[in-house]
Amino acid sequence: MIEIGPAPAPGLREGDFRKICQNGFGDGHNAYAYSMAWFGEHLYVGTSRANLMLLKFAMPFVRMDVWPVECPHPNYSAPFEQDSARGEIWRYHPPSDLWTRVFQAPFTSDAEGEFSRDLGYRGMVEFQGVSDPAPALYVATWSRSRGTGPDLLRTLDGINFEVLPKPQFQTQGREITFNAIRILMPFKGRLFTAPAGATKGNVNVSGVSLIYATDDPAKGEWVCVNEPGFDQFPEVFTVYEMATLGDWLYAGTSGLHGLQIWRTRAEGELPYHWERVVSGGAGRGALNQIALSMIPFEGALYVGTGIQNGGHDWRNKVGPAARLLGYHCGQPAGWKRAAFRARCGFQQLLQRLSLANGCARWLALCRHDGLERDSPVHRAQKAAASAGANHRRGRRRGIRCLPRRFRVMAHMRRRKLALSDAARFWKPL
Description:
The chain is mainly beta. It has seven helices and 28 strands. It has a single domain (19-369, 404-426), classed as Kelch-type beta propeller (Neuraminidase), CATH 2.120.10.
């Protein structure tokens, strides 16, 4: 007799979420919530500007029936630079439910005129380097094609952001040229990153598979830790994501024939020893083009996959195929089948978006551990409760002390942020 356990709980529904930001903080050209990090009592969000319109400018062969946010001004025109091209950083204070813009990209200039320095902020993380007097929030920028390459911003108080010496990335005696940094991953006292994109619409293709590290980002001195790289273009477009699990640092790539996953203990002499644990898109080939997001959870590493340009890579004729697959690696090794696909509570939404314009994709995964009971946020929660906030109101505002669960961030064309205290979506099918 075969015993069958109870059916998994149903997936999340609309009532499990509360929208805490809509319409790009009131500006439709805040296209993506490109990066997020907790720092102090606030959640920080780095935006990117007019992504879809820039895609339309750079890749005219991309066809869509409806563009979500129109922009009548050409790239680098004065109206575009003033109104559409300045990346922003916002922060959210959960107890007061208040968003505040704390940074907007400044202008710079070249021989052709003035333009916004940063289109967006693709990475941010809290880290304390050797010369930092305290933990700081580091933010990676997305530079312009006419710019001088990406910068690294740092703030110690969450309000005042300073530009650090420009990161210098070299390999085998030559300097690497690119225009975006996406990954900022702390591991064993060092901060790791990788070139993420190039110009002419190649925002997710740097053309190199190199990883760099430093123990003092404020100095701008980085060393390559995986020379000569993982593979050659186009087998690897770029190193797109990194995550840590136990004593290992994992790196996920994108490539013409599918993602690869590599790992290292980041010990010993440089370059570190790396081993490949997944190749060929984990059995799905080009349809698992990018290791888009990675997160450790309960001793396993989960990887969300995707295809560049919103789920349909027109240039390389891949897709559309909007999916989220989870792979996990137990200790010490052993990759297993997909844990789930993008169904459950989001199935109908994904189908509608995919059928409409092939654009659905998952941008990030995040583990949510709840609030530490002695943290400033938890003290603010208790103060709100003593002022008469009822249980349901506290729960909906995201300040309830939650058990260890997943938080999911999804990007579906239009920019939406949502909090959930349920984990039912992660039940395997």
